[in-house]
Amino acid sequence: METASGNMTDFCLVVLANDEAVSHASETVRSRFAFLAEETRMTLVSAVAERVEKLAEHGDGGPIAVSISLEADVIHGAVSTEDDTGEGTASRFEIFLSDQD
Known about the structure:
Blueprint: E1 10-15, H1 21-32, H2 38-58, E2 64-70, E3 74-82, E4 88-96
Antiparallel strand pairs: 1-2, 2-3, 3-4
Helix pairs in contact: 1-2
C-alpha cells in the first residue's frame, strides 16, 4: 500500500538480538519513515526501540521482527520473536496520528 505521495505504508524488518539491535532498528525506522512529521517519527522510533531493547535483553536470542503499518489516522506496530517451537512474544502498539499535531 502507498500513501498519496507514493511512500510505502507497510514495513517489516528483522534484526538479530544482539548489542546493535536497538540502534539498527531505530536508524532503519527513522530513515524509512522520513516522510512523517518529526514528532510522529520520533514517537514511532521510541516505541520500536523500547520493544526491541526489551526483547533483545529478555528474549531467547532469536531474531526480532518489527512490522509497521500506516493507516490514515493510526500507525499499527508490532515487535516480536519466535522460537524453534513456534512460541513467541509480541509487543504491539498504536500511535494515533491525530494526537501528534
